[in-house]
């Protein structure tokens, strides 16, 4: 039983180090910087699909 726990712990440590390496890799900086700006770059306008749905709802009310 102790061997299984040791193997599982080693696998989780390797997985953790892989995620840390992936997150801090220099090639990912541009992607993460872009993702961080998404909320700040959005318009105040609802998405096109939502505007179209609102228009359809208004048209249906007038019929």
What's the SSE blueprint?
Blueprint lengths: L1 H23 L4 H13 L6 H15 L1
Overview of this protein structure:
The protein is an all-alpha fold and 63 residues long. It contains 3 helices and no strands. The model has no long low-confidence stretch (mean pLDDT 83).
Class inferred from helices and paired strands: mainly alpha
- Report how far apart the termini are: 71 Å
Low-confidence stretches: none
Rg, please? Answer: 24 Å
Helical residues, percent: over 70%
Instruction: Note the overall shape.
Output: elongated
Order of helices and strands: HHH
Number of helices: 3
Number of strands: 0
Taken as a percent bin, the fraction of beta residues is under 5%
* Major sheet summary line: none
**Average predicted local confidence, pLDDT:** 83
For the structure shown, list the relevant keywords.
63 residues; mainly alpha; 3 helices; 81% helix; elongated
Quick summary:
The protein is mainly alpha-helical. It has three helices and no strands. The model has no long low-confidence stretch (mean pLDDT 83).
